[in-house]
Structures are given as structure tokens and as C-alpha cells.
Specification:
By secondary structure, the chain is α/β, with parallel strands linked by helices. It has 13 helices and 10 strands. Helices cover about 45% and strands about 15% of the residues. Helix 8 packs antiparallel against helix 9, helix 9 packs antiparallel against helix 10 and helix 9 crosses helix 11.
Length: about 350
């Protein structure tokens, strides 16, 4: 059995997928690399086949009809044989040195019978025009270099949400919790991270910069104008997350509070882009989203509205909308997103 499966969803990724594959190959025979060709029409398959031929015990290629990023992740997970599972987008990559350290750490934990349900490491924003790379670490939020539980977590800053880039889940946990990402939908990485959290009993955090998250292509899903055009998909994902758990049934107060904070971030992102678009239709969608939350779970609505982000998203009139836009632009500079 492999130690880790890394799935690379690929849709017309010929221009950049090699870098992702090459960095993962540094893990050697501990790795299983599953390239999921999601209906590509370029040379994605040819490139993948060359890597399969070169490293047949490590690299696998699975081709499917186009189903979107989520369906490619579903396929990778369904076929994964590694003890742990990681998603690496085809335009991103990992630090080879950090990968080797992570694999050695996981191997040692498993040998001691202490393999965690969720392993976390830092990620780096590889923004094209940034002079300094923004590193997202969890050094003030999580205990380092030891097994811990949700009751041991500390304060998460706004920039410290657990994202797909930072997570390595135990494969069987993902399969057992029944996660299934929607087809032809963007921003499913939020579901991938969020939905399994209540099933996680043990965690381990390594303060090391493993994942390199590339930002710079005009067609990227996190590009501001792209996010505005795809706001309906962001709304869909937010509602799926709200419906995935009754957070007030979660025993750990710290986990429940973290998940509420995550939902607050999702509500904020949706609201900000609807406000920035500015049309009557978009402002109506923002109101509908908050009304939906209120009717679905009034207690959760009050919790999220009581937080500073929730309050700011509902300031009235043009002045309120201007405050939101100014806050968003400041946040972009602080946190390095988009």
C-alpha cells in the first residue's frame, strides 16, 4: 500500500501540469500519483502517458468525460490506494524537500500507531506580481509536531482558514464520511475541506511550507472578475456547506466555533462579490442568501450576523456597500488572495 495518493485534476493542463507531476515524483515509491484527465482536448493525455511509461509504479492516468474539478477529485478519491490523500491542482506544485519531510513524518507516526485523521502543513501564495510570497501558517492556531484534538486548537486569524492546499486527509476517513463533490461546479474545494471536519478525531500540524498555490492566470477561478461571473456557483457551494451539518450537534465547542467562522467567511465572500457587481439583481441575491440562512437555521444566522464580518455585510445603503468594498481591498493586501 502506498503512503500517500496525490490526485491531479487536469483539464487542458498541458501548458503547466509537468511541474506539478515532477515535484510529486520526488516522493518516490511512497507516492501514488493519479492524473485525472477531465475531458481535455489538448495534449494533457499525451503528457500524462509519458509519465505513466516513465514511472509505472507511481503514476496512473484515468480519463473521463468532462465533469469539472469536483468530479475529477471524486474519481481520484474513488481510485486512491494510499493511506493518505492530497489534491494538487495542475497549475500548482509542492516543495520537494518539504514533501519528503512530510512523508517521513507520516511514516513515523503510522509506525507508532499514531497516524492522524488530518495532517496539516503551510501553503504559499505564488502570486505572479508579488515581490514577497505570502505564507499561510498555523503556528499561532495549532500545536506543532504532535498529535492533538479539536479541544487543543487555539485562535485562527482571518487569514488562517484550513484550505485544500493545507490538508492531507486519511483516505478512508474521506471515503467513510461519504463526501461527494458536485459536478460542473467551481469552488468545491471548500466542501472538500469543510464537510469531513466533524469526522476528524486526531490532527497533526507541521510548520513547513509544502504547497505552492499559483495565482496569476486571467482565467483562474479565484480571479476577481471570474468570481463575480460565477457567483451563482459560490452561492450553491455556500448553501451545500450550510446544509451539510447541524453545527449545534457538534460536541467540541472549538470545532463548532471554527466551522461557524468558516461559514461566516463563505457568506462574506458571496456578499462582497454581489455588492461589488452592484446591480439590483445581485443585491437581491445577497438578501436572498441571508434570508435563506435565517430560515434554514435561525440560531446559526444569529451567530454569523453577530460576528464583525456578518455585521459589515449587512450595512444599509450605498455607504454600507462602500465600507464593504474598502474592507475587501484592504483584506486583499493583507492576506494576498486574488
Amino acid at each position: 500500500m502506498k503512503l500517500m495518493t496525490a490526485t491531479i485534476p487536469c483539464y487542458n493542463s498541458a501548458a503547466y501540469m509537468r511541474h506539478a507531476i515532477e515535484t510529486l515524483l520526488a516522493g518516490g515509491d511512497e507516492m501514488e500519483i493519479i492524473i485525472v484527465n477531465d475531458g481535455s482536448t489538448d495534449d494533457t493525455v499525451k503528457i500524462a502517458e509519458k509519465y505513466v511509461k516513465k514511472s509505472p509504479t507511481i503514476v496512473r492516468l484515468i480519463s473521463q468525460e468532462n465533469g469539472g474539478h469536483g468530479e475529477a477529485v471524486n474519481t481520484g478519491l474513488a481510485n486512491a490506494t494510499g493511506i493518505y490523500f492530497k489534491v494538487v491542482d495542475s497549475d500548482d506544485w509542492v516543495s520537494e524537500e518539504a514533501l519528503l519531510q512530510v512523508l517521513d513524518t507520516l511514516k513515523g507516526l503510522l509506525a507508532d500507531g499514531k497516524g492522524p485523521d488530518l495532517f496539516l502543513a503551510n501553503y504559499v501564495y505564488e502570486k505572479m506580481d508579488a515581490k514577497k510570497k505570502k505564507v499561510i501558517n498555523y503556528s499561532m492556531a495549532l500545536p506543532k509536531d504532535r498529535i492533538f484534538t479539536w479541544n487543543d486548537i487555539m485562535h485562527f486569524r482571518q487569514s488562517q482558514n484550513i484550505l485544500m492546499h493545507s490538508t492531507i486527509y486519511r483516505t478512508n476517513l474521506l471515503k467513510d464520511c461519504g463526501i461527494r463533490l458536485p459536478k460542473h461546479t467551481f469552488y468545491v474545494d471548500n466542501i472538500f475541506v469543510y464537510q469531513p471536519l466533524p469526522f476528524v478525531k486526531t490532527l497533526y500540524y507541521m510548520d513547513i511550507n509544502l504547497y505552492r498555490y499559483f495565482i496569476g492566470r486571467d482565467d483562474q477561478s479565484v480571479n476577481e472578475q471570474v468570481m463575480i461571473r460565477r457567483i451563482d456557483q459560490q452561492l450553491k457551494i455556500t448553501k451545500i456547506m450550510i446544509e451539510s451539518h447541524d453545527l449545534f450537534q457538534i460536541k467540541s465547542n472549538k470545532l463548532r466555533n471554527y466551522m461557524i467562522k468558516y461559514l461566516s467567511m463563505m457568506m462574506t465572500v458571496s456578499s462582497v462579490f454581489l455588492i461589488k457587481e452592484g446591480s439590483d439583481a445581485s443585491l437581491a441575491k445577497k438578501q436572498e442568501l441571508w434570508d435563506y440562512l435565517k430560515h434554514y437555521d435561525k440560531r446559526l444566522y444569529k451567530k454569523i450576523r453577530s460576528q464583525i464580518l456578518g455585521r459589515s455585510m449587512n450595512l444599509p445603503g450605498k455607504f454600507g456597500r462602500r465600507i464593504v468594498e474598502v474592507g475587501y481591498n484592504i483584506s486583499r493586501k493583507i492576506y494576498g488572495f486574488n
